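COURSE: Structural Biology Practicum
ASSIGNMENT: Worksheet 4, Part C
STUDENT ID: 0417
INSTRUCTIONS: Below are two proteins. For each, the amino acid sequence is given first, followed by its structure token string. Answer the questions at the end about the second protein only.

PROTEIN I
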Amino acid sequence: MRAHADRGPRHVTAFLLLAAALVTTAARAGEFVRIENVDLDDLAAESFRLRRPLTVRVRCEGAGDRREGTLNAYGWILDLQSRQVVWKLQIDDARRGPGDNFAFEGDVEIPAGEYTAYFSPFIQHYKSISFLGKELGRVYIKRSDRQPRHSNRWGLRLSVADAEEDQVSRFEPTSRRADPLR
């Protein structure tokens, strides 16, 4: 009788571990953009094409200052034809993470077309000084070479349902279409 009692919790534990692995695999199955570990003050980009309008699962975590309403590590998606931003991480739409982090996870409807997903962790080198809501000036702050706390969580991931994976493709855009400054 005792052998059965000892075996029960192990089976439950094994089942739970297997279920967690399957859920994690299913969540990543349709992933077509993954931007992580971007160097500070750098810009990472991945381009993709949607053959038809799709619901895209967006997972993005960055950092900012809620008091100033600014983000300094964030992601966005640019429509390469219209040059319009179709989605970006915004403080008001994100949940608070550890430290100064903000995270968004949700579904975004994106029309058919060509896009580039960007992520940039630009860490401010200055601090604004304000009085009565008016900026009086900025003080330069020497930044250390250390990574900001919780920056290992920053990044942007895009995915679609498994059944829609064939409607998404990655591509290397010409420099004119990929460069946001042109």
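PROTEIN II
(use this one for the questions)
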Amino acid sequence: MIGRGSHRLRLGRFSEPGRLYLLTTVTRNRTPLFKHLCYARAVIQQLRLTATHRQCQSLAWVLMPDHLHWLITLGHCSLGELMREFKSRSSCALYRQGAEHQRIWQPGFHDRALRRDEQMRSLARYIIANPIRAGLVTRVSDYPHWDCVWLNAPRSGDKATSPVPAQHTPSPLHAPGAENRPPPYATRDAAGNATTG
């Protein structure tokens, strides 16, 4: 739980535009808000809006019942600005969906700067496999709240169907398999099919 020592998380934090980061943020008191589909979709819409606002490029993410893992390329803002705006917008979206008007997210977040030569596809697989490790599902395709620019939704088994692009930071609209990717503001149903809403 991030609490009295959360200021220590900011010590030495450096935001470098164009750099890859793995971000993790947790709901207040680890409340499993996102087990409710309408709440999960509201947060996913806000994740997708960050790309529209050019704050970052989302490469992979998974929204767990009580936290978010998010692999990004940072745009022209700081990590603090990105997370502050995301948390604010997502909280407002949740209130509109009927969430109780209290703090949604715990203060602070965890970040890990990544080198371009790290295995991004392996890290993306690790991120989206969180629901399996948490015992929520037995296959990635059974969990609806994830996305990855390098992987299509697995239909049989959980194998990637598109290779990692050479530059490691593909445009989400031009990534291999983009024609099979869900439309903006979409999640996946239990069968792995894109759903809008």
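ANSWER KEY EXCERPT:
Q1: Residues 16-196 form a domain with the Alpha-Beta Plaits fold (CATH 3.30.70.1290).
Q2: The two ends are 32 Å apart (CA to CA).
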